[in-house]
Amino acid sequence: MAWDAAADPEQACPIAPVVDIVFSRWTTPILWTLHQDGRQRFVELQRRIATITPKVLTQRLRQLERDGLVVRTYHPEVPPRVEYEISDLGRSLAPLFAHLAEWASENLGKVDQARDAYDGAR
């Protein structure tokens, strides 16, 4: 497949929209957590992803729900309870995440070495 650098960025790189959806700053940890740990309440997610703020978690969950990757279930109890779980569409990303985890395990050390070599040469 030849890439045309002059083409529209989404035409030149057909995975760009996927990268925008799946690999934004907090999306990956949220999807990973929901996939690994199953259905969770907001506070459980916030506890597991300790560095995310409540505002950002709310924004990302809403976007993931809009994109169809997360399902939000409201339970009209007293007090009300809301749970989040990964959707079938979100779950379909599991093989991609598995490949990326494998790549990370095999190659992040090499990336660190390349960075050290680059920084040492400067």
Explain briefly what this protein structure is.
With 122 residues, the chain is mainly alpha-helical.
General description of the model:
- It comes from Actinomadura montaniterrae.
- This is Helix-turn-helix transcriptional regulator.
- One of its GO terms (molecular function) is DNA binding.
- It holds the Pfam family HxlR.
- InterPro entries: HTH_HxlR, WH-like_DNA-bd_sf, WH_DNA-bd_sf.
- The structure is a single chain.
- The chain has 122 residues and is mainly alpha-helical.
- It has one domain (10-121): Arc Repressor Mutant, subunit A (Orthogonal Bundle).
- The protein is built from seven helices and three strands; from the N terminus they run H-H-H-E-H-H-E-E-H-H.
- A three-stranded antiparallel sheet has the order 1-3-2.
- The longest helix is centred in the last third of the chain and has 28 residues, at 94-121.
- The protein is elongated.
- The mean pLDDT is 90.
